[in-house]
Amino acid sequence: MKRIGIVVFYLLSGLIARAQDLTVIKEVNVISMKDSGVLRNKSVWIERGKITGINNRVPGNNRVCRVIEGKGKYLIPGLMDMHAHFFYEQGDHRNTNEKELKTMLANGLTTVRIMAGHPSYLEAREKVSRGEWNGPKLYVASPQMVGRWPWSPKFENFGLVTTPEEARDKVFRFKKEGYDEIKITFMVKKEVYDAIFEAAREAGIKVTGHVGPMVKLPWALKQKGQIEHMDEFIDMLLPDSSYNHGESVSDMNLWRQNAWATVPHLMEDKIPSVAQEVKKAGIYVTPTNYFFLSCFGSEQTEQYIKYKPDYPYIPEELLAERWQIRQRRLDMRIPESSLEKYRRIRHRLVGELWKAGVPLMAGSDSPEWFLVPGFSIHDELESFVKSGLSPYAALQTATVNTSRYLGTPGSKGMIDKDFDADLILLDGNPLEDIRNTRSIHGVLKEGKWYDRKTLDEFLGK
Ligand SMILES: [Zn+2]
Predict the structure, then answer these.
(1) Are residues 188 and 250 in the same domain?
(2) Which residues neighbour ligand 1 (ion) by CB within 5 Å?
(3) How many folded domains does the chain comprise?
(4) Which of 25, 190, 354, 416 could form a disulfide with 68 if both were Cys (CB 3.0 to 4.6 A apart)?
(5) Can you give the CATH number for the domain in which 445 is found?
């Protein structure tokens, strides 16, 4: 008798555990991202982290499960930021990774690629995947490959590569250490650039990052790496070589006065053909446009910067340096006509890349400037719409496109049966106004529900 009792107890507790794992979002408008339509008033069933059904059934009283009221709300896939960093690599290197991951999640990010690797980021990736930390699924690019490192070597998130041999060694080392991709940043020479790609193909790891003035776009397109920031795209708009123009405003040259002097000479009618060249190479591009437009393309007032939701989340000890960088930027005294042309060109580049069919990916490049990971993804989405993308296409840059790039097209980036339950419940329809991606009512990450109250706690509200 006693034994039967134990058996019954285990059966029942198993059933209850299973039922508790069942979540239903009821009567919700689903933006599945399979197409640009909206599925009205659906129940989305979630079990063990996966979407098990989307239908008209309403959960009955006989089932014990969590029911989330979705009436009048909109469900979109969790957002992905393809270009983020942690604050750890700045200032005197205070590790606040865990806290920052919560800020990301509270802003609807369920996948994030960290762009300049460090062992502590690999650790963060593992802690999230084991469920010890709350946060988005992380991909961690390698320590950045650079030709020179003029800053403090104290924080090792870089690898010096001055020869093809060094490049080869580092690619294999970073792959072995567990990084997801190889990241290229500054001052890498052509032959080193090529050696990185060659070794990466051999090691079976993707390459992403900058294109410097020593490499330039046509050379980079031959290697078909994934390009960040649209580096060197603008240099393609320079008049032909008979004009002694020097280098334009790409990569680190953005900080050089004589690079800005080329802007009045840039030929905007070359933009469509540049987009075609990029399309032919078949690569993915992360424009990180909002960052460039706010730091270099405009002169945001102090009041505006302080008003942004990001501002309170910049660590106190980093603020002074931030304001110094802004002053340095203002001291460049770039004529408004050049700033305007720069803004127009960057928006037109994004628009033409999209029209040409280049897969674009959302990346915030936070915490550069006054941007903070999480908040800034919404600015980037808005920036895509300003470049001429539809709100639906803008959403694709942070869902389906990114998922395809990351090799998870069957499990992330869409709302469909058997997909991971990475979801955001919104109060407003982002297809009507992209700014509605900010109206977050709750987030599901692999089936785990975070309501508004929890998200506010994450944000320290
Ligand atoms: Zn970056």
Answers:
(1) yes
(2) 115, 365
(3) 2
(4) 25
(5) 2.30.40.10
